[in-house]
Every structure is written in C-alpha cells, then in structure tokens.
C-alpha cells in the first residue's frame, strides 16, 4: 500500500485556497475468480475490472453554523465532471456538485418523513484538480481549489428545500418536531456538466429541472415540466419539458446528466421510472426515460426508453428482469449517441453499461401528447413498436465494492458488518480504459446517527476490462 499527498480544501474556504491532507492511495487488484460471486452469470462471462487508486477527501467545512443549524462538512457529492484534456498525463480540471444538504428520515405521527439538518445550506459546485497518470495508475491526488455557491440572478442564494408544489415531500427538522418551509428557488442538484465556453448545466430532482448557470454559479434559466409555475422565482422559468415528468417518484427526479462531445446535446436520465398511474407496475417493468435536450434552443429534441436490468438475463425483453429498486446514478458521454451509465440496486448491484440510443425509438411525441398507456407500464415494447436503448455490459463493479466500502468507512471498518453503505453518484471517463467514481456520503449523516464519522467522501480510479472505444472527445 502506497502513501501519497492528497490536497483538499480546509475549513471555511471561499476561493481558490488549499491546504494539504495526507490520505492513503490503495491499489486493489481483483482476480478473475472474484467474478464468481456474481449471481447472474459465471466468472467467464462477467468481469469487474481493477480498482487501481483511491483518494479520501477530508471533511472540510463547506458552510459555517447558521443559527441552530450545524456546520456542513464536505460531502453529499452527487456528480463528477472531468474536463477533456489534450493528453492523459498530469492534472485535469474537474468539477463536483453537492446535493441539497444533510438529510435523513424520521418518524412523524407514525409515518416516515424526510428531514433537513441545515435548511439554509446552499448547494454548490466545487472546482478540483485530479492528478493521475495512467503510466503510474496507483498514484492519485485531488486538489479542491474553489467553491461556487448557486445563486439567483439578483445574488440570492438558492437552497436545498423543496418548492412546495405537487408531489414535493414534506420536510421536517431532524427530530421531526417542526416542518420546514418550502423555497421557490430550492433545488436538489444531482447532475453536472460544463461546456468549453464555461457554462454549467445541472440536473435536479424536485421538479425535475435542467438548470443553466454562468461560470460563477449564477443560475440563469430553469427548465421544468410543461404547466409548472414558480411565482416569485429568482431564476427564469421555462416550462419546456414534457408535463409527464412531473410524475417523478419522490426523490427520484433527474439523477444523471451528460453532454455530447460536440456539445449539441444534453442527455438527462431519470433515476427511476415515473410513478404515473400505476407505480407498482412501473417499478416492476423498469422502463426509465432518457431525454435528449438541445442547450442552444432550450428544447427537448428526443426521448428514449432505458430498461433497468441486465439485457442478457432471461425475461429482460418481457419486462421481468428489472432489479428491485433499481437506480440510475450517473453517466458520461462516449460519443454523439453513446453513453456510459452507472446502474445500481439493492444487494450490491453496481454495473456500468454502454448505452446506444442511435437505433432506439424516439418516444418524445408520445410523452408530449400524454399518450396512454404511459411508457412506464408498457410490458410488450415489441407490440408497441418501441425499440429500447441498447445496453452492453462494460463492467460489473460488485467485486470491487468491499474494498471501496472499506476506503469510505476508514479505520472503523473492522468487519463486513461495520462497513458503511456505498452510494456511487459521480462518474467521469478518464480515457479508453479508466473511469473515475465518487461516492455520496450523505454529509456523514446516517438515519440512525446524527454524525457518524465512518462515512467519508472518496474518489476511485477503475481500470475497465476492455476499451471503451471512445469517439471524438
């Protein structure tokens, strides 16, 4: 095991200020026999790749205490974007985004309700530098160099509170004693890309929305489902998305965002199927909407169906192979119509799929028209003359998860039972054979503890079992 300096931002930082912190960089070589643990196919058919480097980010202060609210420490990272480089050697500029802030679950009148420990927290974009060289893959260093709190055009900070519309959740303080007021400019940011011109695009869960922001974090436009109105918003509201997207499942709006190499298309992926009129059937079939959006015109241009589950599993085409509570957590663009998608589910399912939409049916006309039955409840896509987005397994990450959980859990992970849960929510393609992954540690807050130090934010580099065959980047 090697030791390397990993630089991270210290407490209370506001600009490009960095202080050093020592972390451990771990190389974990996964033998081919490890894939035998896979439940669905044999070791000869399923490969995980190799975990080559790991970096722990110190829990530096993002926001100071505000009244009765606690300080918010570095965490809650919900996406990672690494800028393309002329070569694969040396430091690369990168960006991460936080979600709405420390949150959890509590019981209110016998029902589970969501909580926010820091309702005034402003979601933010963090600038970083990743120093990694494929010629020395076990050496990894990350420097956090700046923070961009998201703000409205008149300078007011946004928050992580729901907007108080439709199927927004009720939110309480951590003890469940008092409700927290909604906020018209609240967002739960989950996806992030940056254009070469310096514009940020973000995806968020509440409405769900696509957000356009200046390079300093100022939000300019919020694209929401048709018919949604947010009176008093400090951001221009454009109701250009299909209205049906407002039927997103609670806490399952837009989760993943990617931009094509030529920057003419944004791809926004919902985390799970829309609930619609039959939530149970929608979740059983696993049909999830993938939207293609033109950032120049501000309009959706196409939509495709992504089906949860393994396409080689018996019953996938018939809609009987979707994993229980499957989640689509992150993605990156490999080409004009090709994506790399991270799919997770309970029981340790974590897989990377190469997804091709070029031959898939454009379902945007049905979505805009509100055609019945909803796409989520279409069991026989063949009968409906709909071709799914094509999926090919790139890597099954399940054999790598124990080592990744130990890195996130730290010294207190003395046994499998003491390992922290792992939520992988950021994905970036580094080159043809390597990807970077980052976890969301929920700001170190767990449902059964107010401040559990076992949870840490980590960045990993994984060598894939085969080339991604990247096109123009």
What does this protein structure show overall?
This protein has 3 helices and 28 strands. It has 473 residues and is mostly beta strands. It has a domain at 1-97 and 127-150 and 397-473. The strands form 8 sheets. It has a 5-stranded mixed sheet, with no helix packed on it. A 4-stranded antiparallel sheet has the order 3-28-27-26, with helices on one face. β26 and β27 (434-439) form a beta hairpin.
Which key features would you list for this structure?
mainly beta; five-stranded mixed β-sheet; disordered N terminus
The helix content is under 10%
Radius of gyration: 21 Å
Please outline the major beta sheet: 5 strands, mixed
Overall mean pLDDT stands at 86
Which structural category do the helix and sheet elements fall into? mainly beta
Oligomer: single chain
As laid out across the biggest beta sheet, the strand order is: 13-14-15-16-17
Q: Could you give a quick summary of the protein structure above?
A:
This protein is mainly beta and 473 residues long. The protein has a domain at 1-97 and 127-150 and 397-473.
Q: How is this fold's topology laid out?
A:
Blueprint: E1 2-8, E2 19-25, E3 50-57, E4 61-63, E5 72-73, E6 77-82, E7 91-98, E8 103-108, E9 111-116, E10 124-132, E11 140-149, E12 171-172, E13 189-194, E14 200-204, E15 209-213, E16 219-225, E17 236-241, E18 254-259, E19 266-270, H1 279-285, E20 287-294, E21 299-307, E22 327-333, E23 338-345, E24 349-356, H2 364-369, E25 390-396, H3 401-409, E26 424-429, E27 434-439, E28 457-463
Parallel strand pairs: 9-12, 16-17
Antiparallel strand pairs: 1-2, 3-28, 4-5, 6-7, 7-10, 8-9, 10-11, 13-14, 14-15, 15-16, 18-19, 19-20, 20-21, 22-23, 23-24, 24-25, 26-27, 27-28
């Amino acid at each position: 095991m090697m030791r390397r300096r990993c630089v991270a931002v210290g407490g209370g930082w506001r600009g490009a200020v960095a202080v050093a912190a020592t972390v451990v960089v771990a190389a974990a070589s996964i033998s081919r026999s490890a894939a035998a643990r896979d439940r669905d196919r044999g070791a000869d058919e399923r490969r995980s790749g190799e975990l080559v480097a790991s970096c722990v980010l110190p829990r530096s202060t993002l926001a100071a205490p505000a009244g009765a609210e606690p300080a918010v420490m570095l965490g809650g990272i919900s996406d990672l974007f690494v800028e393309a480089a002329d070569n694969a050697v040396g430091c690369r500029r990168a960006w991460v985004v936080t979600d709405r802030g420390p949150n959890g679950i509590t019981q209110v009148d016998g029902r589970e309700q969501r909580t926010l420990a820091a309702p005034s927290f402003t979601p933010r974009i963090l600038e970083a530098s990743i120093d990694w060289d494929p010629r020395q893959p076990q050496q990894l260093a990350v420097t956090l160099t700046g923070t961009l709190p998201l703000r409205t055009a008149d300078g007011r900070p946004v928050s992580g509170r729901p907007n108080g519309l439709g199927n927004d959740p009720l939110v309480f303080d951590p003890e469940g004693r008092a409700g927290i007021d909604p906020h018209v400019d609240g967002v739960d940011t989950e996806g992030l890309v940056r254009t070469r011109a310096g514009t940020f695009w973000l995806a968020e869960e509440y409405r769900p929305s696509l957000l356009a922001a200046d390079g300093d974090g100022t939000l300019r436009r919020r694209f929401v489902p048709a018919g949604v109105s947010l009176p008093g918003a400090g951001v221009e509201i454009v109701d250009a998305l299909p209205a049906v997207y407002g039927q997103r499942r609670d806490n399952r709006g837009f989760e993943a965002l990617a931009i094509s190499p030529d920057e003419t298309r944004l791809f926004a992926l919902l985390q799970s199927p829309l609930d619609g009129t039959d939530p149970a059937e929608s979740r059983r079939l696993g049909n999830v909407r993938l939207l293609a959006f033109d950032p120049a015109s501000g309009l959706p241009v196409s939509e495709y169906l992504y089906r949860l589950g393994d396409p080689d599993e018996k019953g996938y085409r018939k809609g009987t192979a979707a994993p229980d509570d499957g989640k689509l957590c992150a993605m990156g663009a490999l080409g004009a119509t090709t994506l790399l998608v991270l799919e997770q589910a309970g029981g340790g399912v974590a897989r990377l799929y190469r997804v091709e939409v070029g031959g898939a049916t454009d379902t945007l006309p049905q979505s805009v028209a509100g055609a019945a039955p909803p796409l989520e409840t279409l069991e026989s896509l063949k009968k409906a003359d709909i071709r799914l987005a094509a999926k090919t397994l790139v890597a099954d990450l399940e054999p790598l998860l124990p080592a990744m959980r130990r890195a996130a859990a730290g010294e207190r992970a003395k046994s499998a039972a003491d390992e922290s849960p792992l939520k992988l929510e950021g994905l970036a393609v580094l080159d043809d054979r390597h990807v970077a992954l980052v976890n969301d540690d929920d700001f170190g807050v767990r449902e059964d503890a107010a401040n559990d130090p076992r949870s840490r934010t980590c960045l990993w580099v994984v060598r894939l079992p085969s080339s991604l065959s990247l096109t123009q980047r």
